[in-house]
Amino acid sequence: MQKWQTFNQVETVWSGWMLRAKQAAGNAFVKNRLVQTLVAKKWSILLLFMAFLLGRAMILDQLAPFAVAFFAVMYFLRRELLYWSGAFLAAGSLFSMDPTHTGYLVVEMLVFILIQKGVERFERSDISYAPVIVFASTFLVQLFSHLADAQLSWYTFMMTGVESMLSLILTHIFLQAIPVFTLSRKNYVLKNEEVICLIILLASVMTGTVGWLIGPVTLEHVLSRYLILLFALVGGAPLGASVGVITGLILSLANSSAIYQMSLLAFAGMLAGLLKEGNKMAVSIGMLLGTSILSVYLGNQSEVLNSTWESVAAVLLFLLTPRGVIQTLAKYVPGTQENLKSQHDYAKRVRDVTAGRVEQFSEVFRQLSRSFKQITAEAQPMRREEEVGHFMNSVAEKSCASCWKRQQCWDEKFYQTYKYMTDMMTEVELRENMTKKDLLPEWKKACVKPDQVLGVMKQQYDLYKNDQHWKKQIIDSRQLVAEQLSGVSQVMEDLAKEIKREGQEMFMQEEQIRSALEELGLSIHSIDVISLDEGNVEIEIIHQYTKGFDECRKIIAPLLSEILGEHIAVKNEQALERKEGYSTVLFGSAKEYEVETGVAGAAKGGDLLSGDSFSTTELGNGKFAVALSDGMGNGERARAESSTALTILQQLLQSGMDEKLAIKSVNSILMLRSSDEIYATVDVALIDLYSAQTTFMKIGSTPSFIKRGNEVFPVTANNLPVGIVHDIDVDLVSIPLQHGDTLIMITDGIYDAPGHAVNKEIWIKRMISEIDAETPQDFADVLLERVVRYHHGEIFDDMTVVVARVEKFQPEWATFRWPGLQRIERPKTVS
């Protein structure tokens, strides 16, 4: 009873918690929907207000190309506001300088809808057709009106074509600008052309305020100067001047008496943008100064006073503008801090999502690996008992089913009979050629058909052995899959950590590098510091180069080495196609050590194809791999096995897999790819190019040797070759190398050359110590030649020697000091 009460209490608490969770989720959903609805209504009201002003806007006192273009764009972008937009456009045209234009506008919108519906009937509807349909609608309506009034002339025909062409161009412009207000853009990235289109749209909207006066203040002049102040603060002098030119041009077309406004606004925008570093007040002073200078020069006293009041009104609006509005505008303008931050935030979100997905996949692979290992481990003891029981049942059914003593043996003396059968199975397992003479006397007494039982048992044992072989293959395959999944999981986990690394904005470091390079007289176009992590520096510089001087290696790299405190080298250099005389250069950390290699080899009996394979390659993670493999036997088959082992091992190591797991994977693959006894030795040295710490992986290979001055040190391990046993033990030997050390790796063809009567290790050490070659290639050639001469030119086995010499990296050009040069402060890595 107490248990049921406890269960009911838990159920009550759980139900209450679930109810509260549902209510909270519902409230959050309603709140989000309400916020979205309010934001959508705010933008809808703004778009309708723009429609009213664009319906009123005219240029050259008789052309109104804005309305139909806006109506067409709203048809594709905000279909739900289409009829409201048409109504506000028509209402705005009623308050224009030519109210009779309202009828033409309504007919043009109707013709546009009819043509668009006709195009949709043929399934050809696309937003790219909107400018052409607008052109056709405007041209047909205006031409028909002139024909109906019998006023068609070359002048009216030309003006009709001009208005239609302007409508087409404005449709293109509005298609790029209006999406900013319709919230269809999720990322704040606008091209420079799209920013210009946005300015043209805003200037076109301001054209609808022409003729509106508040005392001596003209409203379109206030709004145009307010627009200049906004863009000058956000984008500086170039954008401020551009806004001044565009708005002045459009306003002068709408009001021919204000033609001087173009030069006035452009000059004011340039001055305001030059003072953007001083924030709002400095920008306002720059605009006031620019408008005042040109107003005094171009106008009379009353015009100067009116212009001053207009500028003051624009400044007041500008000072009252919330900071959030300016930051939102700055997000759209390329090159601003807000734009860069929004892109950085977006990239960070994408990076975090990607890292989370990679981590999920890593966990999936890890769970799969555990499940495969668990199935294999749990099935081993149970399978052995089941297989023995199945074996005994098969023998009993085939030999005892028709025997007259079956009931006596298996019912009355079950345990004794089972023991006899088990002992006989053990003997058959130990002696496959067992005959009737080898049967024990007590077995012959207990069984009336010992010959038949023995024959059946031997037959079943052959089947049992075959089953065991394939079951072992299945277990090995599962083990291989488990290890591979575990390795892939680890690699993906490391990848997720790399993705999560926070990118950093290093403007101070970039400016410090730029100033140091420009003091040397170099023309630097741009600098992008990708990473300043010690040992992993990446700096991309675009500079104007001079052919034949090679400033990158002779000046820039040594200077970077000095201010960063580590050796910097040129990683890649590529000329820019779009900019003649410019080159993109990637500078990166130079390794502390470099490895020079040499290889020499000979096939058995002087043949062309040797069973040995070698590899010397940089893995890309700061490590250099020197590998040697000897396949079983000689010739093409041995070559295939050794090269396969090295190729798979190299690819696994380059992917970032652990060394031991990589060796075990290669071993499993070699075991599973063929049923024959095929194996290969593997001898790998992984040299860290930053510390010269070297890890040796020797799987069934002969000893390697390190020559340091006049001393020779052997490196040995006692592991079986890969491909012989499944669960191979991998012993890693780690030895720190020094500058000038020579590493010699050989196959058994060279190591076994002196024969059994001589201590091989001492013989090889003495021969290595006697060689004094300048380069690793000469060293390898001399060692192979001496071994061949030792046997008087006979080659009894495949011979290969790989020599690697570790030396300190010496830059081609030394670092140099420059007056006032300071070390760069490296930022802390944020993970």
Automatic annotation (TrEMBL):
Keywords from the named record: Hydrolase, Membrane, Transmembrane, Transmembrane helix
Q: What class of enzyme is it?
A: hydrolase
Enumerate the transmembrane spans. Answer: 43-76, 82-115, 127-145, 165-183, 195-214, 226-251, 258-275
The PPM-type phosphatase domain sits at: 596-806
Q: Which GO terms describe its molecular function?
A: protein serine/threonine phosphatase activity
Q: Return the EC number.
A: 3.1.3.16
Q: Does the keyword Plastid apply?
A: no
Top-level taxon in the UniProt lineage: Bacteria
* UniProt-listed NCBIfam families: spore_II_E
> Per its record, how is this protein called by name?
Stage II sporulation protein E
